[in-house]
Write a structure and sequence with these properties.
With about 110 residues, this protein is mainly beta. The chain contains no helices and 7 strands.
């Protein structure tokens, strides 16, 4: 059963490596989070690429180390979307700005 919408805030301190943080309104479900108003997600990672399983209809703005790198059009059932694709592993802060109604499932890294 899904939870009720909750408002989250990014921490003031930088995110430690491999930590995720939510900002804005999100609704936690059994296998997914549903995006609410002004939702953002931040994650610090070390990898060549980052991927995210998303469903619904809307857009996701990808920001890496404070620089917008792409906008992804999400449509339909939950496929895997490539967020970053670097030639070598690197440590970075990934931020996503997601349209209301999208469903977020899982991250993968390579």
């Amino acid at each position: 059963m899904d939870d009720k919408p909750a408002v989250y805030r990014f921490p003031k301190d930088p995110l430690p490596l491999n930590k995720l943080s939510l900002d804005g309104t999100w609704t936690a479900g059994y296998e997914r989070f549903t995006v609410g108003p002004d939702a953002r997600l931040a994650f610090s990672y070390r990898a060549k690429n980052a991927n995210f399983v998303l469903a619904g209809t809307g857009k996701v703005t990808v920001i890496v180390d404070s620089r917008t790198t792409k906008t992804i059009d999400v449509s339909g059932s939950p496929p895997l979307y490539r967020l970053t694709d670097d030639k070598r592993p690197r440590t970075a802060r990934l931020e996503l700005r997601l349209d209301k109604g999208l469903e977020a499932y899982a991250f993968t890294f390579g």
